[in-house]
Every structure is written in structure tokens, then in C-alpha cells.
Amino acid sequence: MTGPGQDEAFVVFDHVQKSYDGQTLVVKDLNLTIGKGEFLTMLGPSGSGKTTCLMMLAGFETATHGDILLGGRPINNIPPHKRGIGMVFQNYALFPHMSVGENLSFPLEVRGMSKSEREGRIGRALDMVQMGRFANRRPAQLSGGQQQRIALARALVFDPELVLMDEPLGALDKQLREHMQFEIKHLHEQLGITVVYVTHDQGEALTMSDRIAVFNDGRIQQLATPSQLYEAPENSFVASFIGENNALSGTVERREGERAAVRLATGELIDAVAVDAVREGAPTTVSIRPERIEFKSELLPGGAETIEAEVLEVIYMGDILRTRMRVAGNEDFVMKCRNTLGQTRLEPGQKIRIGWHPQDARALDPV
Amino acid sequence: MAQALDPHAAIATTASGVETDDGPLRTADGMPLARALARSQTQARRRAFLLVLPLLAFVMITFVVPIGQMLQRSFYNDGFSANMPQVSEWFAATEPGTEPGEDGWAALAADLQASAEARTIGVVGTRINYDVPGTRSLFTSTGRKVRDGIEPPYREALLEIDEEWGDPVLWGAMRQASTPLTTNFYLASVDRTRAPDGSIEQVDPRQRVYVMLFMRTFWLSALITGLTFLLGFPIAHLLATLPTRKSNLLMILVLLPFWTSLLVRTTSWMVLLQQQGVINDILVWLGVIGNGGRLQMIYNQAGTIIAMTHILLPFMILPLYSVMRTINPSYVRAARSLGATSWTAFRRVYFPQTLPGLGAGALLVFILAVGYYITPALVGGSSGQLISNMIAMHMTDTLNWSMAAALAAILLGSVLLLYWIYDRLVGIDNLKLG
């Protein structure tokens, strides 16, 4: 699913800046357009400004500069309760003194709905998250996953067009988290709502999103679909933040269109795909994904270049063998091999030649 | 064998308590597991008990025993019965309301003489004085005269010493005092008394003070609790939401009254509130009131209310604060995002979650206020006196400890009753003191 109707701008951040203390900017000149029905994830390390953006959209923080538009309307001066945005909080924020049913009834009561209409909606919302039997329970009597579902149902029960989620799965264990990722994804597809999702878990972001905005230092580093983000990172931060990454530093010797020849610190010359910012003669960092590296000559793709490597450590991880090597002076160069029946077992100290397709090496900004 | 194969037989054997191979679990050396467990824990339990023993002894000696003794005085007073055995016996043998015959007078005279010799006549007089004011001197002066002997006929002899000995009210009082167990002090605590024939009646309207004082105590305590809530809630909220550094400063201001001597605090209220005091001076200077119309803000109920609200405020703020600090701000945010105005979010989401703290604070303030003594005594004047001041008066001035004990017991009982009602309505588990 690739962003339905992305041409229709539903949420717009227009040159938004935010400062808490008047001295430093937490969000620096944010421009972001979110299409109707899109699932957009704001991904980034803590302190990168992603939660602040979400809070500004929800109305709990005000933008220091710039406009936020919802459905074409500036919402800077609209209080949170009039924005009609559903929100799921990190700690769920289920009201502990109310039953599950009362929690779901709350947004409908403040909208002045009749009792019968409320009951119908609550029933449908609870059925949607398979929690129909729990209407009379207290939140404290539910497990983490069940509370998560109720929080979801409560954010959806009043039919908002936009739902914000602030690290909603952070408190769940791994298995449940993966399960809930699919459920949220399915709900999104089923209801056609727009979702803005904040997380620091890149796996979560890759699984669920139509597009991901990678935040760092108050800026969006890259805004792209999950596959673009993983396979074609635009800068070193994105390359290292999303997935595992090998970085080799060097200097651009030649540049011809997309391609660049990079002289590594130890003298080897390798071919790479260069991003726009990289100029001839400038220092660069070449990024290669560990699973794109091969060491058997028959498996190397045509046109691949090889480079010498010394095996330092082999870590057995079950499904894969993770081999740490010294390559061009970098001792943290990692290769991932599938643990198949015929796989060659490497030994520490062994000297091998490894290689990759030039398309898989990307020359990015220097670290 | 046949028996073992029959499942019903097997159940019957187990149920009748006969131990089979899979009977109670045993340790490796054959001791039942339950007994082994109890034995292994005994030492730890004994050590734990020894640790709390000093406190237990301290509480027993300084709290439980004295209070028990004090409460006993409210229904047990043998000041008369122990020192006047013969006349007490005569009272026991005759019907209430009986005219005393010569035997009664003789017993009285003999007891008076014996009691005067043993120098306990003052105690006897004090006891009767509780019920019939002004009779203590009758006993002591008669005692002085009969110490060296009294001749029959005793009735005439005693009446000659003092006419009052013929008063049926006095005899009624003596009859009631002739048994150590009495409800008279409780009756007096609710402005009731016993007529000479034993029936219960209200005291003279001019002497009815205690019921009014109880009512005033509870009413003022409730009012002060309400005021501390109104004043304390916003402060507690501020404390819980401000950044740590600022809230610590504010916390010191809240706790300052705690660290100041009660007398200093009360005296400063006197300085501020009296007719020639700071507030009145400022109001006159501003022209809000004329010099002749200075407000009476102290030595009356207003003084008691103002000073006690100030003193008890921290007891409301601290439990509220400790509860509010644990309320995650995301609850109110969630309510707002769900469409609630800030008032609705406060009323329906924030406030209900502060109830455990509010309950604890209200209970604490109310119970403290009900028994407050020093402040009303100093700034309350006559209209600001509470029941505790009456108890103190009976302890120190009239020396009627039984009366003080009865009043205190009623106070204690009503506080326990309130506590019970609170438990039924709110549940004591929901109380959060800090």
C-alpha cells in the first residue's frame, strides 16, 4: 500500500519551529505534508523532536513559529478538545476510576450523544478490537495488551479522521508488540483513517508505515517509504539508524553522474552510488548493508568488486551467522550469512575476500 | 485388594483422615511439612517480635493504659462508696426514694466520723459535689464537727450541724454515688440529670452547655475542613505540577507552619487580627472602615476558624499533594483529546483521582480539629471555645476528671463513628496519607 491519495494534503506542517526555553530549537523548520488515509511514522532517537511534533499536532504544545494545517485549516489557535483528533498515549492513559465501557463512553458523552447511540458505538468499537466481553472491567484488571486495545478503541470510538499514536506499543513484550503492529495496521486499512505514529523502534516503523519521517536533531533527515529508506538512505544518520550498517570512510576520487569511485583510507578503490551532496575530492562514508555482502566467489553478482578481509569473530545467532571482520582498517565490519546446511564455517583469523554489488554501496556524507 | 480397586472406598479412607501413602506431605526425616515449616519460621518470627517489643511496651504504657484508666473514670467513681461503706450498704438494702430512718442516719453519721478520721471526707464531698454543687463544704465542715464523736439521735444531731442534711436531693445524690458504677457523667455530658426518684430529665436551660458545645465543635471542624480543602487543593495541584526546584521552595512555605511553634503562630495571629492589630490598622488607613468600626476578628469564632484553618492546612495539602504527584498528566491530556473542555477534564478525570488524598486529608483535618485545644483557648474568646476546652477546664479547674473523661469518651466515640461511616462510604483502603 503506497500512500492512498497522497496528493490530497490532510495535515501540513509549514515551516514549524518550536522552542521551550527561548534559546534552543527543539524542532527546526519542519515541513511535512501528510496525505489523507496515510500511515505516517515519525521515527527518531529520543530528544529528536518527534514527540514534540505530535504534541503540537494534538494541541498540547503550541508552535513557536509556523503553521499547522488540518484539512486546510490552520489549527494553531484551536484548543485540543475541538480538534477532533484521536490519540493513543504511551501509557494508554485509560481513566483508572472508570470501567472500560465508561472510558469509551467518555468522548461520546462530552459530544452529547444519546445513551442508545453511545451503547451502539461502544459495542462496535469493542468488537473491533475483540474486547466485547470486557466492558465492565476496570483498566487495572486488564493485561497490558488488553489495555492497549481499549486505548485504541477509545481513540477510534468517536470516528476521528486523524489518529495520533505516541509509542503505543512501547510497554508491551516483543511477541505481543509484533501482534499488535499487525492489528493496528489492519485497523488502519479497514477504517481508512489517517494515522501519525511516533516510535523509536525502527522495526515497528518499517513494518507498519506507508511513509517514514526519520527525525534527528529537530529536523527530518529523510522522508520516504520503508524500502527506499532502508535500501537508499540519503545520509549516514539514516543509514546507521535504520537497520545494521557497515561504514567505510574514504575520499571521492571521481564522480560520474550517480557513480563515484572512492579511495578508502587503506588505499583500496571501490565503486559506489553517490548521493547528491557528495562532491569530487570530498571525504565520504560508504555504507553497505551486512546481508548484501558475500564471500563465495560463485555467489558474487556480476561486476562485483572484492576486498580483503580478516575474520575476527563469528557469532552464532540461529537463523544467521554474524561474522565480524577487519576490512580496510574497520574492525566492526559485519557480514550476515544465512545458516544453511552447506554454509561454510569461517574461523577467526581466516583471511578471505568479500564482495558486493556496486549498487549496494552508497557514498554518503562523512560521519 | 478389592477395597483398593474400589474408587469409592479410596475416597472414604482419605476423607476419614486415615493417612495413606499419599497423605500429608512429609519432610525427608518424616516430620509433617506444615509443622516443619512452622518450626523453621518460629525463630524469625520471635526475633521480629522482639524488635517491635519496645514500641509495643511504650504504646501500652503511655497510651493504652492511661487512656483506659481515664475512660474508666467516666463510668466508675468510688469516691463515695469506698469511703462510706455503711450508708452505701443501707442504700443497697432500701428502695430508691425511701425516707431515711434512724438506721440510715446512724450509718451516715458513723461513716462521716470514720471518713473524717481517715481524712477522706474531702474525696466524699467532691464526689457528691459533682451532682449537687456546693455540697463539698457541707461534708468537710460536718466532718470536722463529728470527728471527735457524735451522739444519737443522729438525725437531729446532723440536722443541727447543718439543715441541708435533710435535703432529699442530697440523699438522692448519695444514693446514686453509693455504687461505684454510674452513668451520671454521661448524662451530664448531654445536659441531662437524674431526678431524686431516678428518672432522667434535662438540666435547667441556663446550664445546658455541652450539647451546644459538641454541635459547635463538629460544625466548626467541618467548616475548617471545607476551608482547608478550598485553600489547599490549588496549592497541592501547583506543588504537584511545578518543576521540582520551584515546588521545593513552595513546599518549604507550606511546611513552615509545621516548624514554627504553635504558640508563636497563634500569637502572630493575635498581632494581625486584634482590634488594634495590623489588618484593622491597614483597613482604617485605607478608609475601608472607620476608626470606630474596627472589626472583631479574634477572641471569637472568627479567630478560631482563621487560626485553626491556617494551622491545619498542611494536613490537607500533604496527602493531596502525594496523590496528585502520582496522577500522570496524560490522563487530562487524554480527556482533552477525547473532546472534553478543561473544566470537564478536571471534573470527570482529574478530581475523581484525587479523592483518596482528599479523603485522607479531610479525615485528618477533621479529627485533629475536633480535639483542638490550644488555639481555641488562646484566640477563641467565649464564642470560639470548643468541647476540648471544656474537657481541659474539668481536668485543671473543677478537677472533675470523671466529667472530663465522659466528655472525652463521647468525643472519641463520635470520631470512631465517623471513621466507620467513612470506611463504609469510601473504604479505608482508598485512604492515602502520603
From TrEMBL, chain A:
Domain ABC transporter: 11-242
Enzyme Commission number(s) from the entry: 7.6.2.11
Stretches of the chain forming a coiled coil according to its record: none
Gene Ontology terms, MF aspect: ATP binding
Presence of the UniProt keyword Nucleotide-binding in the record: yes
Alphabetized Gene3D superfamilies for the sequence: 2.40.50.100, P-loop containing nucleotide triphosphate hydrolases
Segments traversing the membrane: none
SMART domains: AAA
InterPro entries named in the record: AAA+_ATPase (IPR003593), ABC_SmlMolc_Importer (IPR050093), ABC_transporter-like_ATP-bd (IPR003439), ABC_transporter-like_CS (IPR017871), Mo/tungstate-bd_C_term_dom (IPR008995), P-loop_NTPase (IPR027417), PotA-like (IPR005893), Transp-assoc_OB_typ2 (IPR013611)
Source organism, top-level taxon: Bacteria
Catalytic reaction annotation: ATP + H2O + polyamine-[polyamine-binding protein]Side 1 = ADP + phosphate + polyamineSide 2 + [polyamine-binding protein]Side 1
Keywords: ATP-binding, Cell membrane, Membrane, Nucleotide-binding, Translocase, Transport
Annotated function: Part of the ABC transporter complex PotABCD involved in spermidine/putrescine import. Responsible for energy coupling to the transport system.
Family, similarity comment: Belongs to the ABC transporter superfamily. Spermidine/putrescine importer (TC 3.A.1.11.1) family.
Quaternary context: The complex is composed of two ATP-binding proteins (PotA), two transmembrane proteins (PotB and PotC) and a solute-binding protein (PotD).
The protein's name in its UniProt record: Spermidine/putrescine import ATP-binding protein PotA
UniProtKB/TrEMBL annotation, chain B:
Record's subcellular location: Cell membrane
Stated name of the protein: ABC transporter permease
Membrane topology field: Multi-pass membrane protein
InterPro entries: MetI-like (IPR000515), MetI-like_sf (IPR035906)
Family of this protein: Belongs to the binding-protein-dependent transport system permease family. CysTW subfamily.
Coiled coil: none
Entries under PANTHER family matching the protein: ABC TRANSPORTER PERMEASE PROTEIN, INNER MEMBRANE ABC TRANSPORTER PERMEASE PROTEIN YDCU-RELATED-RELATED
Organism: Paracoccus albicereus
Keyword line: Cell membrane, Membrane, Transmembrane, Transmembrane helix, Transport
Ranges where the ABC transmembrane type-1 domain occurs: 214-422
Highest classification ranks of the organism: Bacteria, Pseudomonadati, Pseudomonadota, Alphaproteobacteria, Rhodobacterales
Protein origin, superkingdom: Bacteria
Spans traversing the lipid bilayer: 48-68, 218-240, 247-264, 302-323, 357-379, 399-422
